[in-house]
Give the backbone structure.
Amino acid sequence: MHADVEAQHAVVIAGGGPTGLMLAAELALARVDVAIIERRSSQEVSGSRARGLHARSLEVLDQRGVVERFTSQGQAVQNVAFGQAPLDLSDFPTRHNHGLALLQERFERILAGWVGELAVPIYRGREVTGFAQDDTGVDVELSDGRALRAQYLVGCDGGRSLVRKAAGIDFPGWDASISYLIAEVEMTGAPAFGIRRDEKGTYAMGKLEDGRVGVVLREERVVTGDAPTLEGLREGLVALYGTDYGLRGATHLSRFTDMTRQAASYRERRVLLAGDAAHVHSPMGGQGLNLGVQDAVNLGWKLAQVVRGVSPDNLLDTYQTERHPVAARALRTTMAQTALSRGDARMDAVRETLTELLRMDGPRKTYAALLSGLDVHYDLGHGHPLLGRRVPDLDLITADGPRRVFHLLHDARPVLLNLGEPGTLDITPWEDRVRSAAARYSGAWQLPVLGAVTPPVAVLIRPDGHVAWVGEGTDQGLHEALRRWFGPPRAT
C-alpha cells in the first residue's frame, strides 16, 4: 500500500477505548509486540459514556492483579437491574459480589496508565483509513498517510467500525426503534428529578455532583444521523415537562438509540473484531463496556499464542465460537430492557409481573448472574459443571504460603492447579507454557446459580480464568486439553 511503512508490530489494534486498551494489556503480558492506533490526542472521553463495571469485569481485572487501581477510585454498588427490578448479588460466591460505579473516563485513564507501564506504544491523533492483508500479514493505512505492518489487525474502533466495513463483514440486526438525548446541563429553575415513563419510553433528570443536571429524554421521533442541538434539547424538555427549567447551556449533549446489530463473523483471515465493532445495542443494563473488556480477555491469550507460534491459526476460530453467543444473549436482554422502558398500562403490568418473579431467589440469581457476566459458560463439551466456567477465586494453601487462585493468573499464563497428591500429573512437554501449581483446599466449591459442585482433584485454567479441564482422580483427557488449548507438546 505504502512505501512509507513507519513500523512493524505483531498486532495492531485500531481504537484505544476500553476494549483496545484491555486487549493491548493482555497481549503485552504475553510478550507480544502490540501497538494501538487512537484518533484522540489524549485519553479524554467526551461526555457521558459507561458509568460502571459489572462483577465479572472486576474479576478479570483481579485476575491480572490490578483491580484495586479501579476499586480505589470508584464505589461498590448493586448496579444490576432488569426492568424496574433491582437484582442483588451480595449473596453470590465471589469476592466481587457487586458492581463498581466508575465513569468511563476514569476507567480509561487508569487502564491507559497500566498499558503505559507495559510499554505499549499508542499512535495518537491518527486513525486507520484502510488496510490490505496477504498470507503473512496486514498493511494498515493511517490517516497521516503512513502505514504500519502487522501480522494481525484487531478492530476495536466502535460501532461504526471502519475495520469491520473494510473487511466486508456483515452487521445484521435491527434498526433503531427509539432515540434518546443525553445531556449534562445547567438550569436556573428547579428540575423535576426522578424517572418518568410514557407510552413511548423513559425520561429522567438527576442531580450531578457539581450542581449540574443530568438529563435523558426520549425523542418524539427516531433520529439517528443529525447532531443534537441545545435548541432540540429545549424543545424536548418543554414537550415532556412543559418547561425547560431555565436551561442555560450544556457541557455535554449526545444521542443514543436502541439499534441492535452483531457482526456475522468476528474474524476475516488476519482481521478480527472486538467490543462495539462486533456488537452494538441499547446502553440499558450497562453491558457494552463489560462485553468489550471480556472479549479482549478471551481473545488476547489466543492471539498471543498464534503470533508466537505456540498454537495453530485455527485457535482464533474459538474466539467467535465462545464470544458470539455471549453477545447475542446480551443483545436480546437489552432489547427486552428497551421494551420494558415503555410505560403504557400493559407494559406496566408486564414490569410488575417480572418484578414479582425476580423477587424469587431462583429467577433473581439467574438474571443477576447473566447481567453481571458471572454465568458465562463456554461449551467445552460434557463433564464436570466447572468445565467452561470461570474458576472460583479460592483461598489456597501452597508450599509458599496462602495464595488466591486469581494470584496464579496475574501474568496471563495457563495454570494446572493440582489439589491432589503432588507430582501425579505430568505436563513436562508443556511446562514451557503452562504453570503447574500444587495446593490444598478443603472448603466447598461454589458457583453462581449452580451452588455447590463436586470438588475437583485438579483443574486446568486458561489465562482468561475459564476451566479447560477438570481432573477427578486421574489424568484422563488432560493431554488432549493441553494440546487443544496450548499447542502440541514440546519435542524431546
